[in-house]
């Protein structure tokens, strides 16, 4: 579901918390709102589920004005995860997660299945945790329950206000990783407030940078990273050099195809298949199941297999890992695997383009 803000303004007394905001958030993506303290991020987020009402302008969800939707229905249709977690202390983990499904009058069997599924999704054993009370959980575990609760009714939109803000760095990293794994499966429209640039770059597909109630810039993460004109955005990015950003980007659309060299079959060992890159600088060997074995420069092929290089990156690796391996191997490309199978190569040129 897309979310669109049209000429949205919000005043607290005489103070303009949001000034004429025009913004479209992307369906099925993680949309980050980042900015300095007091820039209006939380206000913008809470306008979406009408915890706060706008003074002027319209917010559209799937082209429908949210002020035309019953406010309770609107809230039931969205997940909401906040930093303070807000778990009910006298409810068990099960009861906390089941709040919205119960409001939606799901039958008990369906709720139970959903709670178990969600606990597994956030890496907590349902048997062990279902009947615990919030006071029996660590901060990181509570936050996982908070995320599970936000996802409970399988809403299309999930609003997250610094959900990992209060967690120590190690647990935070782990939670962010699980969250990315979950989002890969569920592909929800997520609006995620943070003031942590690392978190924004790690999690965001799209990033909106806010400052004093206005939007300084919005766009795909890759484009925000390359921003050179807006000094506020440059300041937010801080002393991150381009090489550091590579850690937050993956090889997605940069993988180059390879071609199978039919007549080279069995040249080396009868169990292997040969591929090359399109410019035929390298030859790649796989076994009969197409599992990667190694690669060589073309001129070395058939000569000396002891020079066979075995390094590769996984499709999900970030570009910094890829670059590291290239430098280590003194090569300008690295094979890319998915599930041990060779799917292409990544070149140095495509990292810097
Ligand atoms: N209920 C309120 N009454 C008066 N002023 C408010 C109220 N809520 C927020 N503000 C002010 O509006 C501005 C924007 O607040 P908001 O919470 O949206 O900022 P934020 O970007 O989320 O900040 P932070 O990162 O510190 O949470 C701030 O200056 C804040 O003091």
Word description of this protein:
By secondary structure, the protein is an alpha/beta fold. It has 2 domains: 3-240, 3-Layer(aba) Sandwich (Rossmann fold); 253-352, Roll (CBS-domain), CATH 3.10.580.10. It is built from 14 helices and 17 strands. The chain has helices at residues 41-48, 71-76, 93-97, 99-103, 108-121, 126-129, 139-151, 169-186, 197-203, 221-225, 231-237, 242-245, 319-329, 348-352, and strands spanning 3-12, 15-25, 30-35, 56-61, 64-65, 78-82, 157-161, 189-194, 206-211, 214-220, 258-260, 272-277, 282-287, 292-297, 313-314, 333-338, 341-347. A 6-stranded mixed sheet has the order 6-7-8-3-9-10, sandwiched between helices. A 4-stranded antiparallel sheet has the order 2-1-4-5, covered by helices on one side. Helix 5 (108-121) packs across helix 7 (139-151). It is globular and about 75 Å long. The two termini are 32 Å apart. Residues 12, 17, 35, 37-43, 195 line the site of adenosine-5'-triphosphate. It holds the Pfam family ABC_tran. This is Proline/glycine betaine ABC transporter ATP-binding protein. Keywords: ATP-binding, Nucleotide-binding, Transport. Residues 3-237 form the ABC transporter domain. Belongs to the ABC transporter superfamily.
CATH class wording of the largest domain = Alpha Beta
Number of helices: 14
- Tell me the span between the first and last alpha carbons: 32 Å
Protein structure class: alpha/beta
Helicity, as a percent range? 25-40%
CATH fold call of the largest domain: Rossmann fold
Shape: globular
Strand content of the residues, in percent? Answer: 25-35%
Bound molecules: adenosine-5'-triphosphate
Poorly predicted ranges:
none
CATH architecture of the largest domain: 3-Layer(aba) Sandwich
Main sheet characteristics: 6 strands, mixed
Query: Quick one: CATH superfamily of the largest domain?
Result: P-loop containing nucleotide triphosphate hydrolases
User: What order do the strands of the largest sheet run in, or round the barrel if closed?
Assistant: 6-7-8-3-9-10
Compute the average pLDDT.
Answer: 87
How many structurally independent domains?
2
